[in-house]
Structures are given as C-alpha cells and as structure tokens.
Design goal:
The chain is built from twelve helices and 18 strands. By secondary structure, it is α+β, with helices and mostly antiparallel strands. The strands form three sheets. Strands 5, 6, 7, 8, 9, 10, 11, 13, 14, 15, 16, 17 and 18 form a 13-stranded antiparallel beta sheet that branches. A hairpin with a 2-residue loop joins strand 17 and strand 18.
Amino acid sequence: MIGRVQNPALNRLTPAMIMSTFDQTRREETEPVVRLCVAVGRLHHEGMVNFPDDVPGYLSIRMAAPDGPVAEITEIEAQAARERYPRILSAGGPVFGVARERPEGGWELCTSMVECEPQSAREDMGAICRRRAAEAETAGDTEAQQAYLAVAERLEWEKIDEVEVDVRYRVVRAERYINSGSDGPEPPRSSDPDDHEERDLGDALDPAAGFVMDPALPTGVSTGILKADLLQLVPLEGSFPPDVRADALRSDVTHPGVVLLPAAFTVAERVGGQWRPTGIMDAPTPFRAKDILSMRLRVTDPVERRLTPRQRARYAEAADRLDAEKGCELTVEERFLRIIRVERAVRFGPDGPEGPRPSDQDPEDPIMVLDQKLRARGIDPDEDAPIELNESAQEFQRLFEAEMARRGKPLPRPADDEA
C-alpha cells in the first residue's frame, strides 16, 4: 500500500559506492562524512561529493564510517538485512509521542513513541507539565510552577500540539515501516539492543528513551540509505483516502527531512500465505514483544478466540516455549507467528519534527471536554459506582490475575485493600 517515487540517481546508491567515497574522504578529512542533499521534498545525488556546510541539517542526510567494532557489526548486519529484505512496506498507522526542543540543538524524546492517537500524546504532555510544576514547587520556583500548571490545565480543555514554558514541547508523529523479503517481514537483528530481564515496564530497557532527534547528526551508511528510500515513499493513489495522500504529499514539501528512531518490535501472523499484523502494540525490544505475545497467548486469545480447554492448554504450552527459547517464531494450533522489526521515521522541517496531520485519526476529546459531555448526558464521572463486567470481561480478568500470580506479581484484591 506504499508507492515508491522513483529517483534514478538514488536508485543507484549502494553501500559499496558510499564506502568507496569514505575511502576517498579518509585521505582528505579528519572525520569522513558523506552528505546527500534533500531539495523540495526529493533527494538529489551529485556524484557522491560532500555538500557545503551551510546546507540546513534537515535538508541533508549525513553518513559516517563505523567508529568501532560494535558499529561495524551493526553496519554489516544492516547491509545484509537490506539485501535479504529489500521491500519497504507500511506497518500500519502512525504513532505519536512528546519531544522537547534542546537549547543545544535537536529534539529529545520525553515519552515512548507508542500512542496510536494524538490526544493520548497530548495527555502525556499534560502529565509532563504537571511533573515539571511539582519539580518547580520543590525548588521554590513559584513562577515556573504556575506557568506549567496553566499549560497543563489548557491541555485538559484544548487540543494543543505544542506548548512552550522554558522550552518547547511538541507532539511528534512517526510513520511505521517494515522491511520484507521472500520469507516475509524482517525479524529482530542480533545487533538490536534487547532486555532479557523480567522487570516492571517503567524500569525496562527502551533504546528510544531520551533519544535525540537531529537530522544533522551522521548515521551509519545503511541507515542513511534507508532514510533516502523512505523519503521517496508516498501512499498510492486509490489505496488511501484522498486526504491522507494529500497530507503525505504536503509533508514531502513542508518536512523534507527524516530521522530514524531506534527500531521497535511487534508480532505478525502468516495467514493464507500473506502476513498481517496481530494488533499487538509496538514494544521497545524483542524481549518485550515476546513478553506481550506470551501474555496474549495465555490471557487474551483464550477469551477472544473462545478456545476450548484443550486449545487453551496448547496455547499455554506455546507460551512456555516462547518464554524458554531464544527464537522469534512460534507455531500454535496451525497459526504461524513471528516477532518482527518496525522502522519508525519522523519527518523534519525547518521548525523541527512533524506533528499530527489533519487526516490522522483523532476522535478523542480532551478530558474536561469529555467530562462536560458526560454530565450533559446525565452521567456523573465522579460517581464511584461499581463497574459490572460481562461474562467475557470477567473471564479476561480471571485469566489476567492468574497470569500475574504465575509471574510472581499477584494483583491486590478488593478485600486486601479494605484490610
């Protein structure tokens, strides 16, 4: 569902060509860097030479040779993956997060890029402002405290994608892609950072935490070529709503640069020879994606798929294998599942990273607007009435509590709270 805008000059680029240019620049410069130039939303290549230093950072793709053994291994694996998984496909809808502008340049991620709708990221931005207000209060800075609280209160009533107190905070948007080959979507690479410890998500490894987005910073060769590829992609006419395609073409001009975030990971299923997403949210590491899938096999699937006791036992056995083995593929009840790698790209323009587009799904209201609507319908959001769960919800709750107990993290029961 993603179309490629052909550019003959860029299509000729290969890692070998760029590395030969590094060999030449090594003889001429202390820090060899190859730069490609972006012009009006398209990339132009001029004989593999460096461009003047006054080219704006967002209008260039800078690539540097590996600076150590780890970087060299990562580059070698990325080049091999590019050959084995040459097709770039959409991984579904965009994701959103919050970033702050750094005085020294670039934008730093303040949240994980996992929100499926802009309003969720706006609420995250409000939470950041309230946290900053609490820090200012502790420091005795009443003026900063009041400024942050005022912004947080506005976010409860308005859909605001950027605020400024001491620095700018912005809701940022990332497109999601997968690399695919003859055997399907790309699985995790051995060089991808991973987290093998069972610990709370707040303490888990997230390579994107605090990540600095700056298109002027050099990347590896394969990453630079991938950025060039992504800048040539637009939704195919007729395959997407007209407003989605129009926004993509407009972004090509207003935000002609791109920054790649650390890869995320999710789960895909092969059905009838075709691969499709399973609806599992992006995870920061392969281990976390496996952990989410393990939970789904034991808790969600038995309810949603209405599994028989025999099938539930087989799903639990499959989850046990997933937990015990290092592989990224799993077969259960004739289903074939794979942990896959997701590339996330943030478009950049002269004013920084791209925010939500008008065509992005954004159905949720700010919390206080929703509160007003509920009260107008005679519903009191403050009423602490018990929630009545239907049979499926009760079964889900029972399985979830059993799984948390199995993991050694039992949930408190209402009777425990009263005691």
